[in-house]
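Section handout 9: paired folding examples.
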Amino acid sequence: MNQDFKVYLRLISYLKPYWGIALFVLLGFGINAATEVSVAKLLKFIIDAIQAGNREDLNWFPALIVLLIFFRGLGLFMGGYFTAVISRSLVFSIRQEVYAKLLRLPSQYYLDNSSGHITAKIMYNVEQLTAASSESLKVVVKDGLITLGLLGYLLYSNWRLTLCIFIVMPVIAFLVRKASKRMRKLSVQVQNTMGDVNHVVQESVNGQAVVKSFVGEKNEQKRFYQSSEENLKRGLKMVVVQNLNSPLVQLVMAIAMSVIVWLALRPQILGDTSSGEFVAYITAAGLLAKPIKSLTDVNEKLQRGMAAAHSVFELLDMPEEPNTGTLTPKLRGAIQFDHVALTYKGKVHAIQDFSLNIQAGQTVALVGRSGAGKTSLVNLLVRFQEISQGQIYLDGIAIGDIDLACLRSQVAMVNQQVILFDRTVRANIAYGQLENATDEEVIAAAKAAYAHDFIMDLPQGYDTPIGAQGLALSGGQRQRIAIARAILKNAPILILDEATSALDNESEYFIQKAFDEAMQDRTTIVIAHRLSTIENADLIVVMDKGRIVEQGSHAELLAQHGAYYQLHQRNFEE
């Protein structure tokens, strides 16, 4: 419970900037609470006027009712509107914070969590937070003030009778506590199943071509049905708990009320109370049931929001990508791997005892079967993964001492899986740090990547939107836009990871020429299966199981009749 209290305090701390608006909320709900108590006073006024036969007082009665309803409406509007302002602003600011955090989390987080669960956190869970903060505070303030007002009036009218209500408070507290535990558990399950629903949707949207070509629609519909059904079941269980809890609390309240009425009807208890006072007392006591029901119902909101708060704060407290480097050197491109090892989850050895010296401006080809550790090695160079042992030096500087943004801005990567954004061609080439590039620079990069001609054939040229994931383009065209992006970056280190695998022979021929241009005066690391990319490399490194098996030039390695020779014979098609 202590943990809960800390989380709740942290959540409430987000409301601090809105304390000025909160005053209007208090004022609005204060006016509303006053009208509730006034109902009882108004009844006393009428009955006393009827008994006294005072026509003048009775004439005021219609005007008083209109005034009462007017102020109640005004109070509810003020309270409700300003609560909504706080609530929407809260979602806005926490969502910004969660998104900023997601961008700073290490790559491993994205490997461990599906995109469906990640988006559920930022969309659904953050929305649920308002249930615990502003929504439940609204009910607590609104109905809390009404309850206090009515209890105050009851104590003032007859404190002995009113003590009967306090006797049942521990029973109500016990019921609410039992329901809370169950609702918290179910809330967590609802959030997780929401992530599953999201995950299924994203998979089938991203893989719609496979779904259609393998006639998997029924299968996907079934998966969606199952995860939605789980979500529905958990949600309905919460409703059951809430709807059982509320009547039980009402029942306990009714017992207390019946005792009060029974006692109140004893003449010795009320003594010389007027009819008006008696009716007003019973009315005020009757009015208590509604706000107390609301206060017990708020528990469901609170538990939903608290479960969401735990999950959102857990994400916000995750360790970010370590960026301890302070140096911002202008790199020339010399790379030294010194007994480097990379271990996944403490067990799988992706790279083992890897040592290699690459001179600035050299072209090095990494070859080997799938799973030999080639991609893991280049991921270490941009620190998508952290070295488990050994060290990497760039121009003699340990990689960890270089500022992360400085390091990444000086390494250009073209991956086998091209990532393009749902923006224009120009925005995809001049992306991120390159967004201020001139049109001339963008066109020069596109020409160098042999992309300019097909871009000019598009409906709006460089201003053509290319759709989600660039699906409006062919594989070879997407690849060339990614290469243009890397050429425009003009970094001292260029990494080509299977960069020509999606191309036909003609495109590859042109891009090979483009690469020859791009490779001038910069260190290039090429991971490839195609022979043409490899034969001209200054150094070929053959890898297997994360280790270097052979290294040398194309001619030297062929002469050795070893692993490279065998790969060469099979034409790298493995």
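Moving on to protein 2 of 2.
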Amino acid sequence: MFRIKKLDIFIARQFLLLLVATFFVCLFVLMMQFLWRYVDTLIGKGLSMEVLGKFFWYMSLILMPQAFPLSILLASLITFGNLGESSELTAIKAAGISLMKAFRPLIVITVGIMMLSFYFQNVVAPNADNSFTQLLLSMKQKSPEMEIPEGIFYDGIPQTSLYVQKKDMRTGMLYGMMIYRLSGSYEDAAIILADSGMIQSTAEKKHLVLTLYNGEWFENMRSQDVAGSAAVPYRRETFVNKKIVLDFDADFSLADASALANNARGKGLDRLRHDVDSLHHEFDSIGHQYYADVKRTYFHSVPIQKRDSVRAVKMAGTKAFNIDSVFSRLPAEDKQRAMAKAVQATQSGLSDLEFKSLVTSDADRLIRIHYIEAINKFTLSLSCLIFFFIGAPLGAIIRKGGLGIPVIVSVLVFIVYYIFDNTGYRMSRNGMWAIWFGKGISTAVLAPLAVFFTYKANNDSVVFNIDLYRNFFMKLLGLRLKRHVFAKEVIIYDPNYAEDARKLAVITDEVTHYAHEHKLVSPPNVVKVFFKYEPDHEIERIVPELEEVIDDLSNVNVNKRLHNKEKKRILTALNHYPVVSVKAHTRPFERRWLNVLAAVIVPVGICLYVRMWMFRLRLYRDLKTIKQSNGEIISAIRSMGYAETQADEAVHDYNI
């Protein structure tokens, strides 16, 4: 039965205090990053504090689900980092409490936050997103002088269409202006051209003042024309400086929310499910209608004139019917007419298909966005639990509290999560990846990482030991360090030269026999390596015996003048011994089924076979070096007068 203990309360209190602090810090950072996207919309609009307060309030509600996992990651890192740094985590483990039991109260809290995050995304955030988007549209419409784009016509001003070629954001000047004013109908339109100008709101926010420089005014005078007259008078005016007052209510008012019907972020799960069904039904109907149009246009027979049909029937009955031959017998004018008609029909059909493709692609994109938002509500909530099982074990492993290393680690983890999540979202939205794959890739990457860190922390395994990883990759790539044996200042006991010489002589015979028997230069037998392996532990037995001799001979004392030259020869020869790999030349894996599996997977099997052959060739060279060094040391020992008969015989040259 689960019981709340004092340790659970102690850890939970520390975690909750840090969680509240880190949550507001993370929310502030996310809001500042989010604010940069809309800073141009806020500046220079004369917005009241009430409107700005709503803007930031809705923004904070939208960003809360994103702040939850990041704050959990940072708080769990700092909590267990502090416990490890103050040796409290060591005391907890010494009391027989495992790390998973220490995680228990925080897991309960994290699951509660995960449910809260899902509630925010399903209920609170959709309403906040709709209100935020509506507020944002209203802000953009409040001061149109800030929203006029370059190179396209802007129709945000009533009865006016404005074109600006270039805009200076610093001074507010507009260049290359073209204005269409529609007071009644198109017959009463006025066209104004100006080299430059400015747009400003009046003090009461009810009108816009257009200040134009160096331009012309063209206006149709149709309304003043006498009825029935064929001539249409117009007015043309050239000006250097002119001001035009336009009616425009710049007071802040909320825009129409009907344009937000397709905003997937502003919908809960039930609304998303309902709208996806409606979109499928609507666009399936459009697709069926497009198919019917194409079938009716391109697959139904077209009536042919009577004389043409008779001729076509006669020609169809002959075996020599060929459309090219029929076309070649037409007059030149008919050929041109037929080609022009064919080109026109092709271009018309292509334009029609492009338009229909645009409609269907937009429909597919809209449906995909709805599916993405539905999945995102679950993945973002699940990320709270994943981030906890990354942050808490990392804090227990690193054992560094405060805001130094935990902040760096949290930022790195969140950057990895953000890159995968944002990439998956964009690829899924554009239809390049499946939706489940795009939205699940961040979870699929971080979940194994969380399991790995939790396993390592629970078993007190070393994770951030650089030497461990360096040795692993050096072993994998076949790299090795050179042997360094130095003369010792203090010698506790002298080497047993006679016994060492005898052992080296035996090792020389064994490595010579091994090299001849196994034919290390030749490529290994594929069947024996992967399928019918015979145990080969000879090198595993020889190398420890050789290392024992090297360790004993490293105690040679070169400070004594007696046999000093021979002792230096022994030290030099000891440094020539290679660091031998004892298993890499035998087979890739210890288990037989792994070797069989590696052989079946062709690229893996080939790489392992080539690697094994390379290690066999290296072992051949190592054995030659060992034999040569053995001979050098035995010769030095014989010169010192310690060698026995068996050692003398080992000096002879053996060809490996």
